[in-house]
Amino acid sequence: MKLALMCQNAGLYSHKRLIEAAKNRGHEIDVVNHVKCYINITSNRPSVYYQGRELPKYDAVIPRIGASVTFYGAAVLRQFEVMGVYPVNESVAITRSRDKLRSLQLLARKGVGLPVTVFAHRTSNPEEVIRMVGGPPVVIKLLEGAQGLGVILGETQRAAESIIQAFSRVNADILVQEFIKEAGGEDIRCLVVGGKIVAAMKRKGKEGEFRSNLHRGGSAEQVKITTAERATALDAAKAMGLNVCGVDMLRSNHGPVVMEVNSSPGLEGVETATGVDVAGLIVEFIEKNAEPGKTKTKGKG
Question: Which CATH code for domain 96-113+182-284?
Answer without folding.
Answer: 3.30.470.20
